[in-house]
Amino acid sequence: MIVQLTGTLLEVLPSRIVLDVGGVGYELGVSSTTAAALPHAGEAGVTVLARMIVREDAMELYGFATRDERALFDQLRAISGVGPRLALAVLSTFTPAALAQIVTAQDASRMAQVPGVGRKKASRLIVELSDVFSKNAELRGLVGLSEPGAASLPLSQAAASAGVEADATEALLSMGFTSQEAELALEGHAEAGANTIEQVLAYALRRLGSGR
User: Most exposed residue of 28, 101, 108, 185, measured as fewest CB within 10 angstroms of its CB?
Assistant: First the structure.
């Protein structure tokens, strides 16, 4: 398993780099965050953290400038339906610290800014990552959530809230409402005291009824 490479940068692009290690050129997929953190092409003695993914039809290498980005890449890939490219898209949109803040704040709207991630998938990513952060003290430390005891409880509560919102969104979509209508209808449900799926749906339907 290749976990680190040191060599001369031959090429640096927003989505990939080529690193010459002992005369062998390794192509690694990277996030734009890592690409921006690396030196210009031609620089020697550059160390890149790596993750190798072996498939039936290919072996792929991905590179990272920091341990926290590689750790989050691993956790994102562990989520059902999230492949390496989507994981890199998330890490290209947000730094690890910013992603941790988004998950802590349960900000599905910001998460949905990732290309290819809609509101429903954004909510699911937040739920999954909330669980990861609440259980993984090392990862919390890497992204700056340095007080495990303080972080775990809010993350757990927020994850439950995000899960209810995702379920309510799916229910509204099945009723024929658009994703925009569902998003607007759900705004402010927590402040209104609607926390269970039944309460959230009733709240949303009242808003939709008054708006039509």
Answer: 101
